[in-house]
Amino acid sequence: MSLESALQSLKRGEFVLLFDSAGRENEIDMVVAAEFVTPEHIARMRQNAGGLLCIAIDNNFAASLELQYMHEILSESSMPNKEMIMGLAPYGDHPTFSLSVNHYQTYTGITDKDRALTISEMAKIYNLENKQKKFASSFKTPGHVPLLIASKGLLAARQGHTEMSVYLAQVAGLTPVTAICEMMDAETYTALSVEKAEKFAKQNGIPLIDGKELLEYAKVN
User: Which domains does the chain have, with CATH numbers?
Assistant: First the structure.
């Protein structure tokens, strides 16, 4: 599936499936641009993916909100048992987790409606003047949607779903904020295989992008 069809899909507010690489997490995420997220998107990610639904954001945007990585927040805290703090994951990268949030107008924060509100409102802040003030007044933490901060150099620094999805949104000319969720397999109790993801993609008319193709594109462009 070409990169162009994936970009068109994102621009229409539809899903893209994104495979990082066999040498990394070896996982496929369902990805949608956060600015278009509706409760229906959340329901579909919950039913068809089933992993952890997160918001991936551009590094500059995170800096403007004065956000830090969770491992940094914990390192600087008075938390005991600092040896528990995640260093590198088994696949060799540091985690991109920051705070987890709920929009202040949500109730429990976990319903399809609540998470859609949290995600879409997060995307809206990107275009505001005083981002930090609006963020602090509109969101509560801890919440039900983890924020993931893309690395500064994007794909040059880290080749995770966080960076790849934010890069895709950038190339599509969209707000660099995405909703991503890993696809799980209820038969094997592991991550969905590429073969099964390809079948799902064909049946549902969703473009499937290989991380390798994205990295090649990024090198050239």
Answer: 3-220 (3.90.870.10)
